[in-house]
UniProtKB/TrEMBL annotation, chain A:
One of its GO terms (cellular component) is nucleus. It comes from the Eukaryota. PANTHER family: METALLOPROTEASE TLDD, PROTEASOME SUBUNIT BETA TYPE-1. Keywords: Cytoplasm, Hydrolase, Nucleus, Proteasome. Gene3D superfamilies: Glutamine Phosphoribosylpyrophosphate, subunit 1, domain 1. It comes from Glarea lozoyensis (strain ATCC 20868 / MF5171). It is found in: Nucleus. Pfam families: Proteasome. The keyword Transferase does not apply. One of its GO terms (biological process) is proteasomal ubiquitin-independent protein catabolic process. One of its GO terms (molecular function) is hydrolase activity. This is N-terminal nucleophile aminohydrolases (Ntn hydrolases).
From TrEMBL, chain B:
This is N-terminal nucleophile aminohydrolases (Ntn hydrolases). One of its GO terms (biological process) is proteasome-mediated ubiquitin-dependent protein catabolic process. Keywords: Hydrolase, Proteasome. GO terms for cellular component: proteasome core complex, alpha-subunit complex; proteasome storage granule. Gene3D superfamilies: Glutamine Phosphoribosylpyrophosphate, subunit 1, domain 1. Residues 353-362 have a biased composition (Basic and acidic residues). Residues 94-116 form the Proteasome alpha-type subunits domain. Coiled coil: none annotated.
From TrEMBL, chain C:
Keywords: Cytoplasm, Hydrolase, Nucleus, Proteasome. PANTHER family: METALLOPROTEASE TLDD (PTHR32194), PROTEASOME SUBUNIT BETA (PTHR32194:SF6). It is found in: Cytoplasm; Nucleus. GO terms for biological process: proteasomal ubiquitin-independent protein catabolic process; proteasome assembly; proteasome-mediated ubiquitin-dependent protein catabolic process. Belongs to the peptidase T1B family. It comes from Glarea lozoyensis (strain ATCC 20868 / MF5171). GO terms for cellular component: nucleus; proteasome core complex, beta-subunit complex; proteasome storage granule. Its main location: cytoplasm. The lineage of its organism: Eukaryota, Fungi, Dikarya, Ascomycota, Pezizomycotina. Non-catalytic component of the proteasome. PROSITE patterns: PROTEASOME_BETA_1, PROTEASOME_BETA_2. GO terms for molecular function: hydrolase activity. This is Proteasome subunit beta.
Amino acid sequence: MAMFSQNPLMNGPNYSFSQTPSTAAAGNKEHSFYPYTDNGGSTLAISGNDFTIIAGDTRSTSGYNINTRYSPKVFKIGGTTSSQDDATLVLSVVGFAADGAALKERLDAIVKMYRYQHGKPMSVKACAQRLSTILYGKRFFPYYVTAILGGLDEEGKGAVYSYDPVGSYEREQCRAAGAAASLIMPFLDNQVNYKNQYIPGSGEGHALQEREKIPLPRNEVEDLVKDAFDSAVERHIEVGDGLQMLIITKSGIEEKYLPLKKD
Amino acid sequence: MVFVQVSPRLRFPSKFPKLSFSVKQFEANHVTGADLYFVASGIQFGHANQTRASGAWRAQAPDGCQTIGFKPSHHSITSTVVPNTFSTSIGTGYDLTNSVFSPDGRNFQVEYAVKAVENGGTSIGIRCKDGVVLAVEKVISSKLLKAGANKRIATVDRHIGAVSSGLVPDGRHFVSRARDEASSWRSTYKTPITVKDLASRMGGYLQAYTLYSSVRPFGITGIVAGWDSELELPVDGQVGSGPKIGSGGKVEGKKYGGPGLFMIEPSGQYWGYYGAATGKGRQTAKAELEKLDLAAGKLSLQDGVKEAARIIYVAHADNKDKEFELEMTWISSLDGPTKGRHEEVPKDILEEAEKLAKKHLDDDDDEEETKEDDKMEE
Amino acid sequence: MNHLPQAWGRPRDDVYGAYDHAYLQNGPKQHTQSPAVTGTSVLALKFKDGVVIAADNLASYGSLARFTDVKRLRKFADTTVVGFGGDVSDMQYLDRLLNSLDIEEAYGGSSHTLNAQNLHTYLSKVMYKRRSEFNPLWNQLLVAGLDGEGKPFLASADLLGTTFSSPSLATGFGAHLAQPLLRKVAFDEEAAAKLTVEEAVEAIKESMKVLFYRDARSLDKYSIAVVTKDGIDLKQDEKLEKQSWAFADQIRGYGTQIN
């Protein structure tokens, strides 16, 4: 009750001047401004033998609203021209779009500077470590994004690095992120890494033999990406409108755009 | 006994009275002599050419002494001695530092700054009834400079321009400060600065550079020109239209806003002008400006542009051996061609004005020739 | 009777409730935690040669219609119109910021001016910086004009620094009510590129009307601007035309009617 609110010891009516001990902790002022939002959408990256595909839908949302049907989440990084046509790396960001854009611009500037200073493009491995450092640098006010970095490694093999918002990262065969990550990732486990696929009649229990893993060809991976997004669109309201796909090969980065359902 | 400094660069004007005598005692870097006073600058050596020496010498005089230049030979110094009764105060030491008055109440550093202005390309401003024109004679110092580049007239705020004669970098700093003043005025008062207020701020700024020994005065005379809006302006960022009767405080029949033209000198002195001129050709330009009867307030901006171009060409006539470019900007009234903004005079109008200016000069030459011819005939 | 002299004549908590000392506490530096005087929706639609943008002339103080003559469309350098939703004082701050930017641009002397795309990039960085300082400018902005190639440009930036671009955009209530109507006439860029200025203006005016019907923080006086390569045509004292409240008596579920 309000009348005993200021000093329980007095057990009587309280007045408009403070009677509580002045040493009482005032407590931290609560900020009602929340600096983040979720702009929805999903991204997906799969590495192949000599290519990497990074894809993302192009829908941007605020709650149940669609902000726009075309807002790319996948970016070429570290090219020397405004069109980025000589870039060798690709970054996808999903989560809070403003942080995503800020992160993309920072990484792009750093990778460009590396290229100008060393006279060669940054390796995907070096860039992956650098991106982690950037993210961890804002450990206590994070970029609220799930990033995926893709390129070709020193041997020319496809490379995908995935991150959490504060910079923890690992190299993976494939990764889905964003709103529909939980829908797409199990599909990828099954279709890329052949999880839970066994050779028929190979035995029972532990004797079961896993289906042999083979590197997928590019056209099959592209089809997998399309199927993954078509399915995600059906089941997740924040995913849709368009599919942007960047395919990194030794001859450059190819960009594809395909329509997705706009409902 | 006085310390002697080597100074190989001395070159003195020869108009000062000279006395010469020699000093027998000269030991290394020290000179003794009861009647000898020593120099910094301003005086030519008496017989410098009669003595063989590797370079000119310069001596720092003790406080209160006058100074001379002198040259050493093997065992003597032939030199010019300036008596204490010398008629000018230059060379007394009072001109060596800023902020110090001479006994007759002058600040020599400021006067030297004025000399720098007098060597600069001519700048003028004309205050017309419906706008202001600025023009400058940009002397071409190298054929390698791109024509039309390296502008000398600057925009200070939307409605104000500035130009200067003298040391160009000082002029740039002048403009930079003027922009800061205009911008800070806006952020304080949420309204554009008037030309008069800007001139006042800049006058104060330049004056401060006469007060300290750690700085030197500006080597420029600046001209600021602008148009103060004749209409009631919305406050910057204003959101509604306010009461229909306006903000009030207006005097019936009084005219608000209009053209402004001010000239600010190295001393910080500034006046408002109908026509302002500074730089090398200022005398000629002022004479021409006076002929225009600007105080009558009849001259239109369009005519002002033509007059400005003509005056720059006339003023340049005394400096004919050097090529120049004419740069002109203007600020019109709100219903005029620039809508109260400071802009470059459009190329076609500028070229037309230059054509007329050249024609005018040619006509003048012809006139003189005919006069001479007449005389010949007589 | 209370024996504490300092309590005499003071409002009693059991009568007036506990006294709120919050205003006395000089805690950490305070930033805007919520907007005060606000503007509602801004609408904009691209068409063949440019962009149409509109916002009403109301600034509300909570539910009070506080200022009814507030111009929320701001011109920049005769090339761009910025429409402001949200806090009005932050709008004024941004307007002055853009003003000083325009003056600084004129220092250069060249006739090049910032286009709408440049301005949007600038504004979004200002907004993102301020949100990152926990001191946001409480606005959602629409930037309408032309891009570097002279094509129609329309994009949004908000208090979080989020940005996006679309053939039609609407802020606040308009995102719910007007955006569907605008998307009917300009579903995608191709459709917008076929619209005439008349069609675009008509669609915007119709949407403004619907907003006035349903948004309690809206007004029937509004500003509308058409931005093309020929410049800005800004009208600031428009009235909604041909209103029809015939739908009103069909509404059920509010008020006192029985059936």
